[in-house]
């Protein structure tokens, strides 16, 4: 990677104008545990790229969603691989965000002046969970249907606004094609937008405040 970057730099002179951004001092004690957040970000990029490829063939329709997933898996060249890569990247994303969060807790990197960065990172975990939940319905099979039925039913238990929240998620009293469209919209548009804003805030604060040195 260093040789590739040097080759690019010889032609575009990236290092000099961006040296302040690319070369930053690191505190003592930094090790591979500090790479957990970077791994999570790499998985987000993989999810974005594989999701774009899957969207070329997926049909978010009550009648065609399941068949389009079968077509991706069985007929599209490398379709099974791309779908599996997307699914495993989603699972690993949750794992690495949790590991990154534990590292932050152990090193007390949530203390002032980094408390807002902690909030942004915690919200990123919530969005990642919700992205996984909305994506689970998209294959539109029995397993996805009943998991969504149970998951959205929990919203009805919220005091005072439970019924309204249930209707907001499902688009009606039952899990139907409207729910599928709503989850697809959340999964490919709204949640990625929120994730991008949270990541921008997270990285911007790390850039301004520097990396926490630990305990």
Going by CATH, the homologous superfamily would be Cytochrome Bc1 Complex, Chain C
Quaternary state of the chains:
single chain
Structural class: mainly alpha
Indicate the radius of gyration in whole angstroms.
21 Å
- Helix % is 55-70%
How many DSSP helices? 9
Q: Give the second-level CATH assignment, the architecture.
A: Up-down Bundle
Under CATH, the topology is which? Cytochrome Bc1 Complex, Chain C
CATH top level? Mainly Alpha
Q: Report how far apart the termini are.
A: 32 Å
Low-confidence segments, given as residue ranges, are: none
| Tally of discrete structural domains | 1
Strand content: under 5%
Average pLDDT number? 92
N-to-C series of helices and strands? HHHHHHHHH
């Amino acid at each position: 990677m260093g040789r590739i970057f040097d080759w690019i730099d010889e032609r575009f002179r990236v290092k000099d104008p961006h040296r302040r951004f690319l070369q930053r001092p690191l505190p003592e004690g930094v090790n591979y545990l500090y790479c957990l957040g970077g791994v999570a970000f790499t998985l987000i990029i993989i999810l974005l790229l594989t999701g774009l490829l899957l969207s070329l063939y997926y049909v978010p329709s009550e009648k065609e969603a399941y068949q389009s997933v079968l077509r991706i898996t069985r007929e599209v060249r490398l379709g099974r691989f791309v779908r599996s890569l997307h699914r495993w990247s989603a699972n690993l994303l949750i794992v690495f965000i949790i590991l990154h969060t534990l590292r932050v807790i152990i090193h007390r990197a949530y203390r002032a002046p980094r408390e807002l960065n902690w909030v942004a990172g915690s919200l990123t975990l919530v969005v990642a969970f919700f992205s996984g939940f909305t994506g689970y319905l998209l294959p539109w099979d029995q397993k996805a249907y009943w998991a969504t039925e149970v998951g959205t039913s929990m919203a009805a238990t919220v005091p005072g606004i439970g019924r309204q929240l249930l209707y907001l998620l499902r688009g009606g009293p039952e899990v139907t094609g409207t729910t599928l469209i709503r989850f697809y919209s959340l999964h490919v548009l709204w949640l990625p937008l929120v994730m991008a804003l949270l990541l921008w805030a997270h990285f911007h604060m790390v850039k301004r405040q520097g990396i926490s040195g630990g305990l």
